[in-house]
Amino acid sequence: MTIFYPDVSSYQAGISFAGCVIVVAKATEDTGYTNPDYAPAKGRAAAAGAYFCAYHFLHAGNGAGQASYAHSVVGSDVPLMIDCEAAYTNGVLSSAPQVSDIVDFVNQYRALGGKTYLLYLPHWYWQGDMGSASLTPVIDLGMLLVSSDYTAYSDTGPGWAPYGGMTPVVWQYTSSATLNGVTNVDMNAYQGTVADFQAQASTGAQTQSGSGSGSGSEPTLSEGATGAAVQTLQTRLNVWGANPPLTVDGDFGPATLAAVKAFQTEQKLTVDGVVGPQTWAALLADPGTYPAPTGLAAGSVSLAVSWDAVTVDGQAVASYTVRAVGLNGEVYVHETPTTNSVTLTGLVSGWTYNIQVWANGGPGTPPSAVLKVSV
C-alpha cells in the first residue's frame, strides 16, 4: 500500500492534521532557530492519531552544536529527519552542507541518545551542490533516503529512482498540495504500512511491506482483532470501494467483517471473513487508481452526472447509488437518486474523483460503472 503524508514548517502554522496517519514537522534549524509551531503541531498530530516525526534543517559546519540544539528541542523519543539542502540569506547562498556534514551531525545526535535515520536529500541538490557525491558514508550509518522530485505521483514514478547508491524509501512528490484548507503543503509518499514507517524512522529497519505486493508479514486477521493492522485493512477496503465506507478505527467488528466478505466474494476468494495471505495480496494490489492525500476540506464545485437507465425484467430500477470517491478511498459525496442523473455538490476544486454508479437491485455487481473525473 502507499501512504501519503505531509511535512510542514512555520509556513503552515496551525494546519489541521485531520485524516493524516503520519506527520513530519520542522523543529529546528542550525543552532538557534526553533519553529514556533513545532510543539503545537506535535499536539495536533497526537490529537489526529498520527505518527509524529520532527526534522532539522541542516547547515554546513558545527555538527556538534546543531545536534545539541536539535536534541534539546526534540529529545530522544521523537525520530528526527535531517533536511539537507541549500540555505539562502537575502537571495545569496549562505549554506551548502555536504556528506561530511550529514555524517558529523548523525554521529553527534546519536551520541546524545537521539534517533535519526531519515535523510531528506533532493536529487537536484545531490547532483548540483554535492557534485553527485557517493553516499556510502551515509549508507554506512544506516540512513534512509527521502527523495524530492516534483512531478505527477505514481508507484513507479521517478522519485523512486536510486542515486548516490541509495534507493528512496520516501518520495516528496509535490510542494503545492492542499491539506485541510491550507495550500502549498509538501506531500510525501511511502510504500508500506504505518508500522513499517515507524520502524524505519525510529530504528532504520530496512524492511517494509511495499505498495501493491505485500511482504508476507501482514498478520492473519479475523473478527475481534484490533490495532494498526486492522487500520491498514480498513483503509485498503475503502480504497477498493467498501460500501458503506468503513471508519478506520482499528476495530475488526461486524461492519469490517461484512466488507471483507464482500471483497472476497468480488475477488472470487474463499469467503470466510478471515484476512490471510491471499486476501492481503488482493487488498494490497493496485485497484487501478492512485491514492491521494487525505483530509481535504470540501469545496463548492458541483458536477452533473448521467448514465444509461437500467431495467430489470423490463422494469426501471427504483433508485441508484452514486458516490464521489477520492483517490484515497474516502467517500466525499453519496447520493441515491431515483432517476439516471444527479448533480453532485461539495466537491473540491482541483481534485480527481472516481464517480461510482450502481443500480439498487440491478443485475450487476457494484460498481457497475466507474468514471474518473477531475473538477
Tell me what the structure shows.
The protein is of the alpha/beta class. It folds into 3 domains: 2-203, TIM Barrel, CATH 3.20.20; 228-283, Orthogonal Bundle (Muramoyl-pentapeptide Carboxypeptidase, domain 1); 301-374, Immunoglobulin-like. 23% of the residues lie in helices and 29% in strands. It is built from 9 helices and 19 strands. The protein has helices at residues 38-48, 63-74, 99-111, 123-128, 136-139, 194-203, 228-239, 254-266, 277-283, and strands at residues 2-8, 22-29, 33-34, 51-57, 80-83, 87-89, 92-95, 116-120, 144-148, 170-179, 182-191, 301-306, 311-312, 315-316, 320-326, 331-335, 341-347, 352-359, 369-374. β4 (51-57), α2 (63-74) and β5 form a beta-alpha-beta unit. α2 (63-74) crosses α3 (99-111). The longest helix has 13 residues, at 99-111. It starts with a strand and ends with a strand.
Key words describing this protein structure:
Immunoglobulin-like, 23% helix, 3 domains, 9 helices, TIM Barrel, disordered C terminus, 4-stranded antiparallel beta sheet, Muramoyl-pentapeptide Carboxypeptidase, domain 1, 8-stranded mixed barrel, elongated, alpha/beta, 375 residues
